[in-house]
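Q: Could you fold this chain for me?
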Amino acid sequence: MTLEEIRKEIDAIDPRIRALLMERLDYAYRVAEAKNISGDLRVYRPDREEEILARLSEKVPESKKAGYLAVVRKIMQASRMYQYGLLYDWNEGLFDPLIGDITVPENASRVRVRLSRPDRPNSMSEILSMIGDYGYNMELMELTEVNRKEGTVAFELTILGNLNETNMKKLMFQLSMESLKFSIEAVG
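A: Sure. Below is the predicted structure, expressed as structure tokens.
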């Protein structure tokens, strides 16, 4: 096959992938509805995701496994982002406890975040991916602590954006829900 023929075959696969992803997001919507009704707004279940990844990769050739798992992880991340966005939209005031008594200036252009997460592969890259997926960029990311005894890592981030923006609030909600410890402040 020529390169052009191979690309045509790939182009023919893409609409089928889109249809399956839309179907998966429809089910993610239903999961978010069930969680909203139950009042349990926790979306991220790392133990469940690891079980799913192990099961789905059982018959994947070793030479393709890393790439395959990267795609599946991204699908899971996108599903979580979608669910957190829905939960945020359905539950007025979810952001308020995160901000506390902080006054956010209208012209604030940065958000400083301090958080800790389990120390495992992709911990840092998941944070970076979330920030980019919500449409924001980083100014600074610093690993501030590795706690081997507790199996956690802590980061301080400076994100370019304003805490008054809905997408930033959704990002903060998701980060807070997927972190062990979490705090934010608006920076001028």
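A (continued): Residues 20 and 73 are 16 Å apart (CA to CA).
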